[in-house]
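[INFO] parsing input record for histidine kinase
[DEBUG] input buffer:
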Amino acid sequence: KIKSLQESRNLFLRNIMHELKTPISKGKLITDLMDDAKNQERLQRIFSRFEYLLGEFTKIEQVTSNALVVNKNSFRVVDILDNSFDILLIESSDVDLEINANLEIDVDYELMSTAFKNLIDNALKYGIGRTKIRVEEDAIVFESNGEALENSSFEMAFNRAFEDSSKGLGLGLYITHHIVKRHGFTLNYTWIDGVNRFRIECRS
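[DEBUG] output buffer:
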């Protein structure tokens, strides 16, 4: 029964993605032809948001259907972090980066970059003050100041306890959890003295 429900959910997601892809593409094309600059910019942001969510739905469908292909090679964590910064269009100087070990891990470069990106993006959007990233002997730690999260389970998508309802749907941490899990690592969350801490343990 559980397997049947899982297959039904994946089919539902696949159909939604298929139905939304064409109108989003057409909407972006029409928006580019608009003369009203103010409304054009607003609509471009809206359609870009739709496109981003469509990409997140694609990742969810992949991780929940076990269709996520993991191509592992050995990479330095600092190089994966640099790629995550590039994806977010930020510099390493925009965060407090502390390198305590020359950690190398066997991972899928693009997938782990996405996982790091989601944790950094979450901290930058919802944290107070500067985001801190620390590379340790066998772990990567992402810290930001803020209120404690109400729910510490990563198993459910659309978990608004993790991401503010006006800004996110809780997809990023859900996807990150499954990417980390597929690599045989663990994602742990703690809140101590006003600091939200996400720790990826790299011991497989």
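[INFO] The radius of gyration is 18 Å.
[INFO] shutting down worker
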